[in-house]
Amino acid sequence: MAYKFIPFKQKELTKGEQLTNSKNFYHLLDGRRSVRDFSDQPIDLEVIENIIKSAGTSPSGAHKQPWTFCVVSNPELKKKIREAAEEEEKLSYGSRMSDRWKADLEPLGTTWEKPFIEIAPYIIVVFKRAHETIDGEKRNNYYVNESIGIACGMLISAIHNAGLVTLTHTPSPMNFLTKILERPENERAYLLLPIGFAAEGAQVPDLHRKTLNEIMVSYD
Ligand code: IYR
User: Fold this and answer.
1) Ligand 1 and 62: CB distance under 6 A
2) Superfamily for the 35-200 domain
3) 151 near 56, Cβ under 8 Å?
4) DSSP helix/strand/coil, 23
5) Which of 153, 200, 166 shows the shortest CA–CA distance to 54?
6) Which SS3 state, helix, strand or coil, does residue 92 take?
7) Under a CB-based contact definition with an 8 Å cutoff, are residues 113 and 45 in contact?
8) What is the tens place of the pLDDT at every residue in 38-66?
9) Does ligand 1 lie within 6 Å of residue 34's CB atom?
10) Of the candidates 83, 165, 65, which has an alpha carbon nearest to the alpha carbon of residue 124?
């Protein structure tokens, strides 16, 4: 069934507004940091819902929107997830990750311990939907990794815009999350994000982002 097409209304900004908006947005995003130390200060669920609605505006292959955002605040579930994640991480840091990989992570101070999973008031586990079952027929989604990656970028930006902090946690393998959260067989865990406020005295590494010259190549 074809979509009905409707006129697109271009948002009209003056050159000055374009410049100001683009600069302000860059400064907003440049202020984002991955934070590993969380406080247990609560967050209104409505804020989380707005953040997820924002992620849900992401473009996706054939507009299939192949994502599910599981919002976990239940303390027992968070404990279960933490324990299972740490079990995987212990194996990863202990033997699965190469020495080079561990050396690359050392300056960031990451370890197998993931207390933030229990401390942060919410964790969001993002699942990608590899396929849908429609009328008993299995239909693959398209560009699922690209779609979900873009949605997670929007999610992280929305979290930052709401004055909250997060961290992309990628326990590997992640299938324990499908089991604990009782997800259907077409969903695969993609990313785990704790959301909350930084703990008092939280520190972040003094890292620097690549300059524009390092990331942009012009073809005039
Ligand atoms: N998956 C682990 C390890 C880890 C890997 C990379 I690459 C990082 O930038 C950070 C951590 C974890 O989530 O801790």
Assistant:
1) no
2) NADH Oxidase (3.40.109.10)
3) yes
4) helix
5) 153
6) helix
7) no
8) 999 999 999 999 999 999 999 999 999 99
9) no
10) 165
Domain ranges of the chain: 35-200
In this structure, are strands 122-129 and 131-134 parallel, antiparallel, or unpaired? Answer: unpaired
Model confidence pLDDT, tens digit, residues 113-142: 999 999 999 999 999 999 999 999 999 999
Tell the burial category of 10 from Cβ atoms under 10 Å away from its Cβ (0-12, 13-18, 19+): exposed
Phi/psi region, residue 64 (left: phi>0; alpha: psi -120 to 50; beta: rest), is alpha
**pTM for the complete prediction?**
0.96
- For residues 125 and 216, give the distance between their C-alpha atoms in angstroms, rounded to a whole number: 32
Tokens representing residue 155 in the block: 């999610």
Q: Does residue 18 have its Cβ closer than 6 Å to ligand 1?
A: no
